[in-house]
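Run log, item B.
One chain of 153 residues. Sequence copied directly from the ordering sheet:
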Amino acid sequence: MNAVDPWGLKWYNDWHYNRNKYNNPVHSVQEAKQKWIELPASKKIYHCMGKGNKNNRKFISPNGMNEAVFHPNPDGTYTPVTREYDPANMQTFNYFSPLWRHGTEPIFHVIFDVLPYWIWGNAPEDPTPWDKRVFGPSSDKCTPCNNGSDLAP
């Protein structure tokens, strides 16, 4: 702790921003649809921030830790949402799965993955205001995924 970091949280900030070195995303929607789980609108709100992003598609690996997010293009193709493409909606690595079925409770996902996002955003250049990070987008909500289903809690 010091005047620059009065609560001693710099390590936590660094740990949060460096998480994506562990992410191993698929690189196309077609590849994701074969082996990964597409999340419904209620589970992808933090990847639909800002105008024009409500149709983003989010997939997680079977263990729930790796993410892939895709932005639809007018020609029907999809662009992977990386830090360089859109830091507000980028795919991120989860230290803990958001799913119940993988042996950990989602509370660990909230503490170690969601809470740091609420505090610092996805990256230093993430322009998302704090209230939108915590409460999600209000007017330009995500659209349901193709199957429209929701995951069991």
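Observations after the first pass:
- Residues 106-120 form the longest helix (15 residues).
- The chain has a mean pLDDT of 83.
Flagged for discussion on Thursday.
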